[in-house]
Amino acid sequence: MVGRIESLSNDKVRRVQALLRSTRRRHREGLLVAEGVRLVREAVVAELPLTWCFYTADFAATAVGGALVERIAMAGEGALWEVTPEVLAALTDTETPQGVVVVMPTPVLPAPDAPAVTLILDGVRDPGNLGTILRTAWAAGVSQVLLPPGAVDPTNPKVVRAGMGAHFHVPIRRCGWDEICAEVAGASVWLAAADGATLYDAVDWRGRVALIMGGEAEGAGPEARALAGSRRVMIPMAPGVESLNAAVATAILLFEMARQRRH
User: Fold this and answer.
1) Residue of 2, 120, 168, 233 with fewest CB within 10 Å of its CB?
2) 127 and 169 belong to one structural domain
3) Cα separation values, 132 from 123, 160, 172, 183, 244, Å
């Protein structure tokens, strides 16, 4: 059964807006908001539960949109609500919404017993960067991503959108440093640093490893530096270049890691 919402003052609309605005609200309710064809399709393909699905009549009239809405309806996942374009716009934080939004329980994927590759993101505060890094981690086969205190909330709508489905496939956890230290015990821990002594392609990435990437502005903190010790890896750059974007640097390192692990 499909309901219809035309009013911006509808309780569900207000609740979704609160989820978009408030990290605390998302954590308290255990929900996140995902929008757009690709993200919603990824959630459906991953067979994750949906709480609500909102879509416009124009979206359902397209071949792609109609098939997606029908698939959600057949799966019996969540309540389907047809909404006006104005209501849909109020349910998103993008200027040109694609016509579909879902609210779903925040995925809690089981952490592997012996993660081969752990990515630790210390102080990454830009939502776009975090989302891009998560998408890259998924593509590179990272086992899990750990977020120490100070990192941007992974359920931030901009992070979810930039992650392009990584949240549905890669275990992502917010952790204190004590938990992180226990999690990577026995692994070879490396910190990416501009002053590193070891070139990124000279590291043997084939065993059980953990890579720490620092934030955009201040880099890694003292806990991260202490955990890595003297194991500092660097990416060579042209003279005068101070640093790379955090997401770009992470991609270079992770795909060198993936290259080695394939051989």
Assistant:
1) 2
2) yes
3) 15, 9, 14, 24, 14
Whole-angstrom distance, CA of residue 176 vs CA of residue 144: 15
- Indicate the average pLDDT of the chain: 95
- The alpha carbon of 249 is separated from its chain's Cα centroid by a whole number of angstroms, namely 17
Count of the separate structural domains present in the chain: 2
| pTM of the entire predicted model | 0.94
Whether the pLDDT of residue 156 is over 90: the answer is yes
Residue 82 tokens, joined: 């047809």
For residue 255, give the nearest of 162, 139, 143 by alpha carbon.
139
- The strand pairing partners of 2, in sequence order, are 80
Same domain, 58 and 148: no
CB 247 within 8 A of CB 225: no
DSSP of 153-189, one letter per residue?
PTTSHHHHHHHTTGGGTS-EEE--HHHHHHHTTTSEE
